[in-house]
Each structure stands twice: as structure tokens, then as C-alpha cells.
Amino acid sequence: MLEIRNLHKAFGAHVVLHDVSLTLRPGTIHGLVGANGAGKTTLLHCLYGLETDFSGVVRATTGPALRKQTGLLPYEPFFYPRLTGREYLEFCLQARGRPLREFAGWNRLLELPLDQYADEYSAGMLKKLALLALLVQDFNYLILDEPFNGLDLEANLLLKEILRRLRDRGTGILLTSHILGALTETADEVTVLVGGLVQRHYSRAEFGSLEQDLLDSLHREKLGLLDSLV
Ligand SMILES: Nc1ncnc2c1ncn2[C@@H]1O[C@H](COP(=O)(O)OP(=O)(O)OP(=O)(O)O)[C@@H](O)[C@H]1O
User: Fold this and answer.
1) What is the pLDDT along the chain (230 residues), one digit of tens a residue?
2) From the CB of 196, is ligand 1 less than 6 Å away?
3) Residue 188: is it exposed, middle or buried by C-beta count within 10 angstroms (0-12/13-18/19+)?
4) Where is the ABC transporter domain (predicted)?
């Protein structure tokens, strides 16, 4: 299990995460939802060790160190423009000390032109390349920041199915999305972050009220704003 306990993170005087706790169990998909600026990416960065200046506990409760058994899809992955897709995948494997392998199986699904340079890829193709680099590595846990963003309809459907199958064979997946349907169709539980605080954890059985709660809080906020304007 990956555990975040009492995570507190500030940038200077700006407190971005207040005492956040959540767990990612093997064989589950855990969705993280929240408004722009709520702290989702910061939370993922603290979990993965890209931010280190925080208080609280982040750890894998069993097995090797968290980063050894976890793959991260950053919100904006970096690509060397003059590496081909295939070279990028090989680079990712080598950087992890993993043996090189054939990518054809997974790429029959994603259909990337692996021998073209990354700077010839569209934004959606780059997203697929970053996902492919994770899929070929068989991680125990995946942390995915907006994995559906920028993918075409077919790739969105495919990714949902891939995530469900990985979950079913034991992978723990923590993902953020602004597309509520993508979360409720795949996730087993959802955590709502508001202003860096966990507002509530929802189990799958509670997803019906999740949409209504989000709508209510949105409406309350917007109506309050409207009252002050008109
Ligand atoms: N390196 C940084 N320095 C200072 N402030 C930062 C830094 N990174 C993030 N922040 C601030 O932390 C807050 C949370 O940002 P974060 O990117 O975690 O939000 P988010 O929930 O992922 O938003 P979005 O949905 O827009 O991606 C924001 O107010 C942001 O301005």
C-alpha cells in the first residue's frame, strides 16, 4: 500500500496542502478530484518525491522503496525533441535499470510512429508515448496526473479499459482528472481536495452523491459570487 499521512506542504507562506491523508491500495483505482489549484499535482509530487520539503509521511508500506515500484505520469512529461519514440522508451527503461524489451505488443494498441522524433508528435501522441513508457515497465503502482487529458476519444476508451485491467491484476493506480465520468467509470474510490484539504473520501457506493455534492458546492460558490456582483 502507498500511504500519505498528515501531509503538509507550503510554498513560502502559501500553504498548499493541509494535513492530507490518503492511501492507495494494490488492486484499486483511486481518483483525486479538485478545482484548479486545489493541490492535486503538488500532492502527487510529494508522494513521488519530486517535492521533498514537506512534513508528514509518504511511504510504501511493503516491498521496495516507493519510487522503485511506482511509475509517474507527470502533468507535462518532458521529451527530448531529437529522440525518437523508441529511443525515449529505451531511455526510460535504461534510466530505471530495466532490461530492454520489445514494444510492439503495447504499441499495436497505441499505434505510435516509434521511429519518428518526439518533436514530430502531436500533444496526444506525446501523452500516449509517456503512458507507453509506464505500461512497458510493469509497476506495482501508477501515479497518473490527468492521464485522459489530450487523448482522442478512442484512446480515452482504451486507457479506461487498460486501467481497469491493470487494477484487476493488482496494480494500484492514483489518478487525477477533471472529467468526472472518467473517474466514476474507473475508480473504486475518490478523494475530493478543496483548497489543499481533503473534503471527503467517497467509496464507489457513494459516487451517486459525489456528483451532486460537487454540483452543490459549485453552485453555492458561484451563486454567492453572483450575489456579490448583482
Ligand atoms: N513551485 C511552486 N511554487 C509556488 N507555488 C506553487 C508551486 N507549485 C504549485 N504552486 C501553487 O500550489 C497551488 C496548488 O497547485 P497544484 O498545481 O498542486 O494544483 P492542482 O490541483 O494540480 O491544479 P490544476 O487542476 O490546475 O492542475 C497553486 O496555488 C499553485 O499556484
Assistant:
1) 999 999 999 999 999 999 999 999 999 999 999 989 999 999 999 999 999 999 999 999 999 999 999 999 999 999 998 999 999 999 999 999 888 888 888 899 999 999 999 999 999 999 999 999 999 999 999 999 999 999 999 999 999 999 999 999 999 999 999 888 899 999 999 999 998 999 999 999 999 898 888 877 766 767 777 777 87
2) no
3) middle
4) 2-220
Which residue puts its alpha carbon closest to atom 27 of ligand 1? 36
Distance 98 CA to ligand 1 centre (A): 32
Residue-level length of the chain: 230
Q: Amino acid letter at 147? A: P
Q: Are 174 and 13 in contact (CB under 8 A)?
A: no
Beta strands in the chain (DSSP E): 2-11, 14-24, 29-34, 55-60, 70-73, 141-145, 172-176, 189-194, 197-203
pTM: 0.92
The response to whether residue 38 sits with its C-beta less than 6 Å from ligand 1 reads yes
ipTM: 0.97
Pairing of strands 14-24, 70-73: unpaired
Instruction: State in Å: Cα 199 to ligand 1 middle.
Output: 18
Domain at 2-229: CATH architecture: 3-Layer(aba) Sandwich (3.40)
Looking at residue 159, its amino acid is: L
